[in-house]
Write a structure and sequence with these properties.
The chain has 81 residues and is mostly helical. It has helices at residues 24-33, 46-58, 69-80. The chain is globular. 16% of the residues are buried.
Length: 81
Amino acid sequence: IVDPGEHQDEYEIVLGAADPLEEITGVQGRLANLGYDCELSGAMDNETQAAIAWFQADHEMEATGQLDDQTRQRLRQAHEE
């Protein structure tokens, strides 16, 4: 449950079911689980690039929207927290 105040959003997270980070669906799933607007399309589309850039900015990385090894590592760490 996010923001359990007057307005709350509830998200269901399925643990252990995410595709590997080497697959775009694994990246998209982790971004979505972390609250970034990202559909599991399996394609590196504009929505996915925007979500990656938002994630990068939130984690004090250069917000390129490109998926690199550093971004994958940060996604892994953030998803495990």
